[in-house]
Amino acid sequence: MHAMQYELTLPADYDTGIVRDRVDRKGHLLDDWQGLGYKAYLLRERGVDGSPVNQYAPFYLWNTMEGMNSFLWGGAFQGLSDDFGRPSVRQWSGLAYAEGTAGSGAARRAVRRRRRVPDGVVLAEAMAEAVDEVGRLAGEDGAVLAAAAVDTSRWELLHFSLWEHPAPKAQGDVFQVLHLSAPGRDALPEGRQW
Fold first, then answer.
1. Any bridge partners for residue 147, and if so which?
2. Residue 126: what pLDDT?
3. What is the residue range of 85's domain?
4. Which end of the chain has fewer surrounding CB within 10 Å, N or C?
């Protein structure tokens, strides 16, 4: 399992209806993408849910590297790059995944929390704590799913969760979920990834 996200931070006066329209027109194109666990089409609007910015920031969990590479190099990502400029694409190695108590409920909000892995910690213990947090998040009322991943080039932990209600029970950056493509969600391996 691999996590991936890019962020397009938009001007403060940007009409976010443009992003919503784009997702309405193109979101379904990944609904059957080979190798994709899920893609959450995410939007933050300045002043909504505490966001200081307007930002389009899709989040992906990939079942296969081939699926991710096909997306990035096979043309789909080129359309976004042509329209908005080519963003930096962050990638994390998967640590854990869990389905939430809301199961297949409609995801309305997403929460992303990134934090450094402190120097001097025992890595096995830090990763085990991240896995435990996935279980805790997934067990909360209204959780659709939860995942954790790590970027070892920056030693950054990432927790990501989807929620069926507008008041998620997680801390971090809150996003509106505009669409969810989940062709391989049932194939995402649950639990610890090592």
1. 97, 160
2. 97
3. 2-192
4. C
